[in-house]
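dude i think i finally got it to work??
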Amino acid sequence: MSLSPSAPSRLAPDPAPRRLAVRLYLYSALGELIPLYPVYALLFDRAGLTTAQISSLFAIWSLTAILVEVPSGVWADTFSRRALLVLAPLLSGAGFGLWVVAPSYPVFALGFVLWGTQSALRSGALEALVYEELDRHGRADRYPRLLGRAAAAGTTAAVTAIALATPLLAMGGVAAAGAASVLSCLLCSAVAVGFPESRRPSAGDARRRAAVGAALRGYLATLRDGIGEVRSRARVRAAVLVVPAVSSVWGALDEYTPLLAAESGTSFEQVPLAMLIVYAGVVTGGLLGAPVSSLGARGSAVVLAAAAVVLALAAVATGGDHRSVGFVGLALAFAGFQAATIAADTRLQDAVTGAARSTVTSLAGLGTEVVTVAVYALYAAGSSVAAHRALFVALALAYLPVAVLLPGAMRRPAAEPT
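look at this
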């Protein structure tokens, strides 16, 4: 029996998904290869900004993400996703370059607006483009594996950037770290130019406009469904509240860790090494997320309380003669917080039973951003009367009542429908 002429092409491996995967990994890695990451808070401090002003910059960053996240999804569906992926790293690269060339509060604020917009433009467009291109080639089953590997590439690049920051600062100061960061963003944008995009939307097409209108109506209906599930099911409502309660404070404190390191006497060039220790704890916490999730709400509460106590003790230790011990303690605490955060996210996903899963998750994410902005405001207010160590201790201890309330909050009501 002879094969038809088209049979060999069906049997031969398609190189397109492989090329897409390589570009995805490069794009994810270059987007995180930013040596300015561990020292930008110190850059603000060196420019004469107060802790309150630095906190306001972080708040601008979060508020930009809140405002741009939802419309960015519409932009990705209406215009070229590849064009958005090309534009996104150019925005953050421009912000990093401006920070180094013209360091001042207005420029720093503009940089965070650009950076926040970059994150929002990239988040939905990248996943949608990758999935649709894989699906076009009949390989949609590879999507989870590709996204997981892309996340790993980004994490590896971030660790590499932190490690590179110290020699770059020693050789050329902030200018060298900034130039390397801008170069990485430019290369990231260049990689995005080669992304495939089969979809060719036309803004002037009446059917396209009708589809967008239908999508908007569908979006509003899904939003109503998600809010309805949160309001009607106590378990989901509790899980949506627990996620920001667990993740917001330590996520905000992470931004102030370089300032804590500088206060402890760590030199500007050595701060990235201290951050590398702390980042190793965050990575370890990610690996511990599944075991902690299996412990249940009571076990997660114990982990959360232990992490809070360790963080408070570690912050105090950074002011002593053995500050390296303090930063190891910070790493251990952040590992616990990261694991507890993953456990809280897992319980949220387990609680949701309706079709509006992404909407419910987005509501929890919105809550996290709002609480994070509140933490920035508290830190700014406290910075006028207390040192960084004291603020870390106070905010760490704020986790203790959360840990006490966590098991009760996550207990499933007996009368709640499944």
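The chain has 16 helices and no strands.
im so relieved honestly
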